[in-house]
Design a protein that fits this description.
6-stranded mixed sheet, DUF155 domain-containing protein, transmembrane helix, alpha/beta, 274 residues, transmembrane, DUF155
Length: 274
């Protein structure tokens, strides 16, 4: 997965989503830590995240492809990526060094007052989590598409055309998705960088809020719960069907045993009277 951010040369004053400056600790950082915009701002920057996301600033499409091909050929990738495993999101950014406001985002336009890499890293953390979450949302949509016929089938026919193995596989996919979202992929975690740079955490939270990450995670978990409830019902139904079949097998075995016993009694009786 990669997420590109393109430099948008436009200094027009637009309506913006901005950080609440009253809650921003260290609102004005010293000149020693935040440098003014320089010609280096025209250079591209890349941030790599350990859950499989690359955030690319100010690259052309050709440069992005070269970078991704280098990564694919370097042995870093555990396995070749399928097309379905790739999620791309694009944002624009511009510099407004005259502004007294903090970095902000509106309509996927990021406005910066400095080219300092730590500010871009802060924004990249939030956007990378958004990109990873988008992949999980796509996986959930795919699962919903594959299972949406089941309730209708049960309502119309009262029968299920899935076996235990298929239901177990779907349950495993749901569990894996929930584990990735909540435990593995750092989508919910606040990055450790803010332990040393606490003044930047409000900016990170503002970008997350703009991207509605918390709401999307909550909705994704709710959908997982609904699908899991459906699969639990299917497992119970399959279990009951299996128990019913086993019960009938036992009944027929008892019937056969009874007939065998009757046959033995009849043979003995005939022998005695013979």
């Amino acid at each position: 997965m990669d997420m590109q951010i393109e430099n948008y040369e436009n200094n027009n004053d637009i309506s913006r989503y901005f950080l609440n400056e009253e809650n921003f600790e260290g609102e004005e950082r010293s000149a020693s830590t935040i440098k003014p915009v320089t010609p280096l701002s025209n250079l591209g920057e890349v941030f790599y995240f350990d859950y499989g996301v690359i955030v690319i600033w100010n690259f052309t499409e050709e440069q992005e492809l070269l970078l991704l091909n280098d990564i694919a050929g370097s042995g870093v990738a555990v396995r070749p990526l399928r097309k379905d495993d790739i999620e791309v999101e694009t944002f624009h950014f511009q510099y407004d060094i005259e502004s007294k406001r903090q970095p902000r985002i509106f309509n996927d336009m990021i406005t910066l007052k400095t080219d300092h890499h730590i500010v871009k890293l802060t924004i990249s953390h939030a956007i990378s989590q958004c990109t990873k979450l988008s992949l999980y949302e796509w996986q959930m949509e795919n699962t919903i598409e594959r299972t949406k016929h089941i309730p209708k089938m049960l309502a119309q026919t009262g029968r299920l055309n899935l076996n235990r193995v298929q239901v177990t596989k779907l349950s495993g996919e749901m569990f894996k998705l929930r584990m990735n979202v909540n435990l593995v992929s750092n989508v919910l975690d606040t990055p450790e960088i803010f332990w040393s740079e606490p003044s930047l955490e409000p900016l990170y939270n503002a970008i997350r809020s703009y991207l509605e990450i918390s709401q999307r995670v909550k909705l994704l978990n709710e959908r997982c719960n609904i699908i899991s409830d459906l699969l639990d019902m299917l497992r119970e139904d399959i279990g009951n069907s299996n128990m019913t079949r086993i019960t009938w097998i036992i009944i027929w075995l008892i019937v056969v045993a009874v007939f065998v016993a009757i046959g033995e009694i009849a043979v003995k009786a005939l022998n005695n009277y013979g």
